[in-house]
Records
---
Amino acid sequence: MAHLHADDKHTDAVDPEALPFVAPCRRLQTGDPVSWLKLGWEDFKHAPCASLCYGGFIVLISYLLTYFTWKLGGYILMFSLMTGFVFIAPVLAIGMYSVSCQLERGLKPRIGYCLREGHRNLGNEMVYSMILLVIFLLWARAGSVVHIFFPVEANPDFSDLAIFLGIGTAVGTVFASLVFSASAFALPMMLDRKVDTVTAVLTSVHAVLSNKGAMVVWVLIILAALAISFLTAFLGLAILMPVIGYATWHGYRDTIQVEGWPENIKLPTAE
């Protein structure tokens, strides 16, 4: 089970004006994300029921998104469904992080408590979701603009297609990197500490930019998990998504230095 960190001893009597706008971060080793993944798997084994509940719900959502998109089709429907998921996902993520948080403090994870934590942090979660939604809207618009580079010939040469694919890949990479940077540690910080959404997002971006090597490894791990999930017709999500969620919590604890910020978590009493 994960260890407790020395920076957990705080009081709420903190002057907000004395705190930096962005929390500092530690310098990570390239292989540190592998350790997070191992800790995430340990959390999964210590809380299999809660983990499978979250994982099963994610699988169900994935099937529903696929079904409605396949049956009804249309970019508008798919965008509407994905927009709804943008607002649901933070609540699910907070719940998974709270499982690791409870285990970290020697408590038995409770689904009811996880849901309450998601509801208690709803304000910050919605602001965070709106930030992601704006990025997705810009991403969708940029994707539409990229189509002007699609060759109009009936049988285009590979060189013509290469220009279109290259520009599309570059645009997608920029937006995907922006989403990842804003998401890597923001939600765990909002669960753990009394911070506003902007501070959490900027802290996450700063930590990612300061640890590019480790973050590349972390991205590859996430992509590998998604690939396995697709190959298993989404069933792999039932296990892999909770593990990735728990690993994200440990990554946050290992990376972000939150000394000075008051704790936000209201843990249940130990049984």
---
Amino acid sequence: MNLQGIVTRFLEPNTDTDVIIPARFLKRTALDQFEPYAFFEKRYSGNTVCEPTLEDKDYVFHKTEFNANCSLNHPNCGEATFLLTWFNFGCGSSREHAVYALKNYRVIIGSAPEGKSPFADIFRDNCRQNLIWTPVISETDFKRLNQYLDQKLAQAPVTLSLDTSGDRLSSSDGEFSCSYSIPEHHRSYLLAGLDAFQKAKFEIQTHLKKIETWEKTNELLLSRSPNSSLK
């Protein structure tokens, strides 16, 4: 299976979850539609007005002005579903809302220099549970990819492709390609296509079916059980 999408970048190291989703937005009662508030202090200028409403128990934009210097607002990165990040992305608080705010990205690419971690562990696992791929590429390939994007994004959007079984990340024009790594238990979970709730429900249903099958094939044994009168 291949995942394809336009790529954008956020390359600040040690990006903590409060940068991804500022704490004030955690007061929202809904657990969806956090994407407009992602990287709020980076994406929007100081002229943006976004205020809470008691009636809707939500935050409403009254005036929106994007920060032209933020890489996420690059004119050729609209509708991006791939996000390239730098080391220790998602550190700080373990708030799951940070991942909710990034659910428009199907793939978040990580990398790090030697001795550093591409992702905070809890953040990466929260991504897995919300079906977001977190492939890791080497520092050398990270630099190559950035050089490629510097050249190509000046002309047009760039589409990347993630081969989920072949461990390759490549550009649609074939000019960039590299290997990536991801824990095998992440891969199997993501390929199953079930989020945490769906997976738990599926496992419970599977175990119930096994119990039902066992009971049917062991009716005689159960009838002789001291507790059979309780059934």
